[in-house]
Input
Amino acid sequence: MYIPLLFRNFVLPTMHRGEAPLSDSNFTLDASGVAGFVGGDEAVSAMAVHVYQGKKLFGWYNSPGSYSAGKRYGQLAKSRFWDGFLSDVNTDPAALFELDGRKGPKFKGIESGSIIPETGHLAALMARGCQSEKGIEVPGRKTQPVGVTIVDLHHVPAATLQPAQFTRSTSVFAFIPIAVSIGTCVMCAFFQDWYSSSMILLGMLASGISSFVIGSGKLTFFHPIPAPGAPRGDGLLLTDNDVIVLLGEEGAVNSITRGKFSLNFSSEREYKNIGLCSLLLTTQFVAQLLLIPQGTLFGQVMFVTSLAVSWAYNSWLSSLDKEEIQRRMLLDVVLNKPSMTKYMLGTRTTMAIFVLLALNPSSDPGRVLDDMLPNDTRVWKKWKSIILSKLKNGEKMHFNIADWDDEHVDAKESTLLKTLLGDAQAAYDGYYYHHHSL
Output
């Protein structure tokens, strides 16, 4: 039977003598001090993924960064004792686990007239998702391309709900650090290095209990209920080079513009159980700092091995796109998979007409057009009057020489008017060819 060279040369002889491997070495591998600080951000980020996916039972491994993670979790505990002992800076679970905190783009309600200068986290997720998508090219003149994403929100969610959490194949990989932590703990115990064995076990318990307690939080979505008889919520999310057209009832649209994810615990408002977890992680750091140097070199190697594998797993989890997980939860679970299509328009004029056709405002389309294109020169006023006349009469936006050859404008202005009308026709043809036929 094949036996690995390292195991045959170093481990087997010491097992026969009843000694731990590397027991003859005078070298000391003391990584306990660094272990409490390095990897804390990755540990908290990995915990966030566990929270999103409802994986509260997959934290039973010796995780690095216990001191840093303990200080971060301690920000949730709210009392004079916890503030003095752990951290005097308080936050809420949504902000700690990146469920809140981003600032979203400006929103303009078309039917309601409401304006939100700065939307919240969910609108920011929606905007970033739309910006990253590749749109359908609409033929026409090109100067400054603008993306237009049309979102048809057909479902109005309940005022408060607990969305089903997404599951991925991360569960399988979670068994790797758990198995390595158990294996290294048993190996240290086998060679009677009780210091190293007990510290690995303490790290597993501290991480596992913290994961169970924090993972028991209820991920909740909530949004305001509109007043009875409120108009439709159709409106625009406006970014620098993208426009997102939200179509739907007010309750569906405000799920994006004013909705929020939160993480609720039975221990609110003081979060005493999370404070105890923070205390346990801090205790783990102090105990490992004092006792790991007392272990054998073999035990220290086993301790570092368990930390290294756990750190690799935490780093992999923290590299997952948490924004995409939240975005899919919002769109697929909360909003029941709305229809979303992105188009790329060559000019802002083309964009404005395309958006106007998509919105189809019930009253005062001129105000909507002025909001998107505030230009008020003689040519622009003439152009807007032609466009609004076509909309009012339900006519196709196809133009001929009579539309731009006007005695009230000179030759240069006539050329510009012809160009702008060409943009409008390109938007009209593109909208009815691509979107209206869907």
